[in-house]
Amino acid sequence: MSTTTLARDMRTRFYAELDPVLGDHPHAVLVLAVIGSGYLPAPAARRPDQVIDVGIREQALVGVAGGLALAGRRPVVHTFAPFLVERAYEQVKLDLGHQDVGALLVSAGASYDVSSGGRTHQAPADVALMSALPGWTVHVPGHADEVSEVLRREAGGTGRVYVRLSSQHNAAPHPVDGRLHLVRDGGADAPLVVAVGPMLDTVLAATADLPVRVAWTATPHPLDATGLRALAGPAPALAVVEPYLEGTSARAVAAALTDRPSRVLHVGVPVEGAELRRYGTPREHAAAHGLDAAGIRRRIAELLT
């Protein structure tokens, strides 16, 4: 494993961190459904009571996690996003949420990272679905160092947390503290563009010569409403660029700015265009959805005019 790969790849960093994290938190239990098990033979051999592979049974994956949580353990649950969130959504809702127990769910694949696997391996609606359930915090890291920070913090926690890993990443890490951070200033009256997680570098490239301010967060749910109000100003023009279903953050943004006249643009995977009936690469999917630098620039230009 090269230093460069470890530094940049979120999923690789997640696997590398698991053994020391399990050692630091003996009550934590990693629960897998085959995916990822091939990368973790050493932790599984060293800690057989802390690594459980349920086989290709994603509903059971979350059900087992719920039982572990009820028994006082801290489940760390991992598989691809469509299997963890969409396929096992009822279990996430009932076995964790309705039982009011905590778990750390960590997905891979994001919206279309596994585009070669077809639509079965794509989940642009995962953050919207998780945000619809009460009591969840959603982290969307933009760098492998952020993955490490969140994993080490949340493995010892008690809350319900969803962490979304992606192959897309920013060049540098930023604080994963739940807050909205101003990354580039353009004056108090300039429109604000909020980039979520790994979209930051693409947004900065797309708006390099545009008169906008750029802010960033790795925690879209719950959204930092106080920070958004402070940055947006009294009559904001605002764009939110998110690497999943377009408009996922709309309700939270509207609630934060409910008393202010505002123009808000949401840029993400379009609802009507999410069904790309061809394979292609993740980069080609991003371009088709308008989530490359050129597409984002076109959309931000709408806000400016």
Description:
By secondary structure, the protein is an alpha/beta fold. It has helices spanning 3-8, 10-24, 41-46, 58-70, 81-87, 89-98, 126-131, 144-154, 200-206, 225-232, 250-256, 282-288, 293-304; strands at residues 28-32, 51-53, 74-80, 103-108, 136-139, 160-164, 181-184, 192-196, 213-217, 237-245, 263-269. It has two domains: 3-164, Thiamin diphosphate (ThDP)-binding fold, Pyr/PP domains (Rossmann fold, 3-Layer(aba) Sandwich); 181-304, Rossmann fold (3-Layer(aba) Sandwich). 38% of the residues lie in helices and 20% in strands. The strands form two sheets. The protein has a six-stranded parallel sheet with strand order 2-1-3-4-6-5, with helices on both faces. Helix 2 (10-24) packs parallel to helix 8 (144-154).
* Mean pLDDT metric: 93
Cross-sheet strand order for the largest sheet: 2-1-3-4-6-5
Q: Would you state the CATH class of the largest domain?
A: Alpha Beta
Domain tally: 2
Please state the second-level CATH architecture of the largest domain. 3-Layer(aba) Sandwich
Please give the alpha-carbon distance between the first and last residues.
Answer: 48 Å
Query: What share of residues are in beta strands?
Result: 15-25%
Percentage of helical residues?
25-40%
What ranges have pLDDT less than 50 throughout 5 or more consecutive residues?
Answer: 1-7
Largest sheet: 6 strands, parallel
Number of strands: 11
